[in-house]
Amino acid sequence: MNLTTEDTEIYTESAEVKISALSVFFYLCVLCGKKRPYFCAMLLTDTHTHQYYETDPVKRVELMQRCADNSINRLFLPNVDLESVQQVFDLTAAYPDICYPMLGMHPCSVKEGWEEELDAIMNAQGDRKIYAIGEIGIDLYWDKTTLAMQVEAFKKQIAIAKSKKLPIVIHCREAFDEVFQVLEEEKDDDLFGILHCFTGTHEQALKAIELGFYLGIGGVVTYKNGGIDKFLPEIDLKHVVLETDSPYLTPVPHRGKRNESSYLIYVAQKLAELYQLPIEKVAEITTENSRQVFGV
Fold first, then answer.
1. Using CB atoms within 10 A of its CB, is residue 273 exposed (0-12), middle (13-18) or buried (19+)?
2. Rama region for 9: left / alpha / beta (φ>0; ψ in -120 to 50; rest)
3. Would you say 222 and 252 are in contact if contact means Cβ atoms under 8 Å apart?
4. Whose C-alpha in 4, 16, 141, 249 is 20 to 30 A from the C-alpha of 46?
5. What tens digit of pLDDT does each residue of 111-132 get?
6. Which helix (H) or strand (E) holds 215?
């Protein structure tokens, strides 16, 4: 190609424009936290993670980078007791565009004097925004003797959620009958949320949906004997949100190791397989469901 001086200037300017456009594109991908630009269109939401348990600053940055690398850029953080409140807010402050805090008292934290601790938890909010009351509920796996207190604490926190027009995120372990009884008693237009880490039956799934709750599906769906994969495709995906419950319930292929929010990609892949949909569609639907729940 023979170029005049004028042609060279025009050609060079055109090339610079193209390079500049590419630079902007890749810069935006970096801002999104993406090393793989083709993932920019996909957005996954972890609706339940205790990622704040990692307090080592270097490891925490690595955890968050792996989330970004796998298109997981929305993390909802439930505390479990008074001590974990500050951990939730610290991670939220460090990653305000990615992390969304909740407040509540885990049923395993309900002991004598729980009322004072719950008051302290809720007062710790200050002027900060929260997106749910959670995680709350009933757990009869560890201690059945505290059932009456757990029910009372559950109802008290449902009342708080209703007063704030917020969803609740429910922890239910070996207590579906008890949880459903409370939800039936408290049912009205202001009661909604997520049944976190759903591991129940098809019938229980339909009951939860009837009561106005989304099913939180996590690593258990990837387990060979998890059970929920057998009927989950019969549940419309519009009733499902994704979660990890990290550092617990690690999905296959990392089962047995410490869980982390970046592993949500394996849960999404499993649902894509079960529903015979592209993973991008699973991400789109479940993230939109999370927006409906949390209002953000």
1. middle
2. alpha
3. yes
4. 141
5. 999 999 999 999 999 999 999 9
6. strand 213-217
